[in-house]
Amino acid sequence: MVGSLSMTQQQTCTTPCCATPHRSDDGIAGRSTAARLLVGFGRAYSAGAKFVRSFSVWQRPLLALLVLATGAPASLAAPVEQAPALQYRNIIRNYGPEDGLSQSSVNALLQGRDGYLWIGTFGGLVRFDGSKFTTFRATYGQPARQDPRDSRGPGSDRILALREDRRGRIWIGTEDGGLSLYDHGRFLQLPVCGGVCQVSAISPQVGRDIWIATTAGVFRIDADSLRPTPIRDPFPGPYSKVAVANGRVYLSHAPGKSLAVMAGDRIVPVPLPHGVAMTWDIVASGNQVWVGTDQGIYRFDASRNSWAPKIAKFRAFLLDSSDGPPWMVPLTGKLWREDASGELRLFDIPSGIFPNAIWRDRAGVLWVGGPDKGLWSIQTAKAMLMELPADIAEYGRAGRSVIGDGAGGVWLGYNCGGLRHRLKDGSFGSPPTPAAGAPECVISLLRDAEGRVWAGSGDNGLQRIVDGALEELPQSSGLLNLQIWQADDGEYWLGAENHTFNLRRTDTGAFVLSPPVAALEGQTIRKMAMARKGGIWFVGDQGAMRLDKGRVVERWTPAQGLSSRFARSLYEDSRGVLWIGTYGSGLNRIENGRITHYDESNGLFDDTVSCILADRTGQMWLAGNRGISVLPLASQLGLKFETVPFAASNGSVSFEFNGGTQSACYQDEEGYLWFALVTGFAKVDPARLAEISALQPEAHIERVVTAGVKHYPGETLVLNTSVQPLEIGYTAINLTNPDQLSFRYRISGGDAKWTQAGASRDIVIYDVPWGNHVFEVQARNRGGSWSPSARLKISRPVPWYRHQWLWPLIALLALLALIWRTRDPALSAAHDERLRRMSSRKLLDHKEPSDRR
User: Fold this and answer.
1) Contacts 24+ apart (CB under 8 A), 359-362
2) Which tens digit of pLDDT belongs to each residue from 151-177?
């Protein structure tokens, strides 16, 4: 039922959630039988008496027995290696009642085929689409006596177990309301143990059967007929776990008893390894059954019917995983898992969480639920982030500038944290010896054609590295926010507040500053770049201009249609199209003298574009206040314009770009992209872009209402003849970035066209056309394709008075009636007399001769 975080390896371990492999003794995780039988056992250690009071009277002696049997647990002491300097960190977010979650205890997690994340809590069954939580609550009173086919919620609000069957139905185990089934929009209460027992665990479907472990024993349920069969038990008592390995069903009795297996309709004990007195928990993985015991964690081979050597000495409870070995939760609340090499690895989760449930969704995000801290999402960032040097003060940790060193490494300039040299192997070289008044606040960096490294500071002039030491250029003293750059002809340019200079070398090798460049006076230059048409582009607080031979030959400012005078970045592509990014006013595309403006209203992800980098495929990478996004080639070529977010600020990790400098972004020799952030530096692999829009969302119609009456979306909606507004609520699944979804809809009939709905998830149709129709809605992630349609069949029968043939018939009958009513009475009487005489004459002509006499 669960997935794991990825474990990308770099040397020993590079993932943010993975520490060094370790095997250690540890005390038993003090929790209920996998949070199913003795619900929330972890709270016995974190909440003390409050937790004990939560147990029923018959459960408390068992709890005391467990504590006495295990003794004082040893703490888990895993040696931690120093984290690599560059790593994919976790983006962590917490959801609680303030976000719409029913309450803070999460006992079970499941992502269904429908894409929803289903959450079992003590406040009902919760469905999450990434945008909102929808809670299904029980109808209280006497849950077991409810009409089983007229239920609006599960049998109880206290949900302990969830499982999906092959039909996509959700099986729901409750603490005090038996077993419920959610069948595509409708709840059924199943006749198990009178609807009053605790269902602690539900097995995957085995053939036609679902197996459940309850306080009233073990039941087998036919998934087709939903008929339960109680299993005769030679060792009666509550069961806590059920697992399926190699097609066989394994059971775990209440704490203090043993492992068992189903043999036909009999429960047969499984002999335990030597020295093991009791089992705590079981989880199946392939043909293996992982067993938590009082002597540690063992593995039982279901195909060979034999025990493997002990996996770990520490005692722990186990959580299911759908993609490999289960998770292990010792007393500490930490999370352990066996990797592909068989080593145990510690996964970093937010402190204070004792996991009750784990699920890895189809997008690779790990969801963790605990007994009192709600729901957590743990997502590995797409961009690698630099580990901040320990000797940099808090106020100096922002990244400002990055360049290559010519040997596969990079130089990194921090806001007020000096200069660092990261070598190709990931280690840091010795920082250059600072000169008097060294530029601690590094604004820009340059590695010139001769391999020398220059650093421009915010308030302390220009320096260069000579023989491992910083050497100051005296002429630059007093200049602020220096931007250093070198043109293709070898000429140095230096931008400062309101002035721009040339930096020239004399015949003696000394460097001197020219007078300010007259054509650029009064401007603060942020970016300089070579122009394809000749000359140099200068970008700053007065727009962008091309300088050639000392004079401005091209200018782009608001007067020429630029979206803002505060230009931050510029890129000229291979076709000569000019792209200019601004601070807060979007991106400008200039081709053949024609300017097109893009912002968030017409396809841009972020209205601030402080950096534009093209990768080796030609795709443009944009960085701004909301993070890093990509403009695919198709959009650059004039097709539908849309940027795709790659690394957006989210949760505990910020990807806000720290731009406005000459060298705030850089592409290294291997094609990786480097970005200066407000929290250090990020390294991006463009090859990972394909992961962004690979998943297609699934659209759903959730709500159908007419005149205040709710209708089931899965059935044909039949409307009456009166005009009533039809309200339709729809959604699609994006669990971590729901703001990236957009929708469109249409109603069949005629030349029905799609209506773009943007982010809206509701529509009101005030007059549904007559006849039979289909309402369709589709969704897509930003940069992705449209999903298949979610459909609602609508029937509005045409009333008798609206049929087309009716009114012509009525008109004809009316015309005939009118003709009859308007005839002349005298003519009519004469006509009638004439008819009478003619009839009489014919009658006489037909009489016999004798009659005529």
Assistant:
1) 359/1, 359/2, 359/3, 359/109, 359/110, 359/111, 359/117, 360/2, 360/3, 360/4, 360/5, 360/321, 360/322, 360/323, 361/3, 361/111, 361/117, 361/735, 362/111, 362/115, 362/695
2) 578 999 999 999 999 999 999 999 999
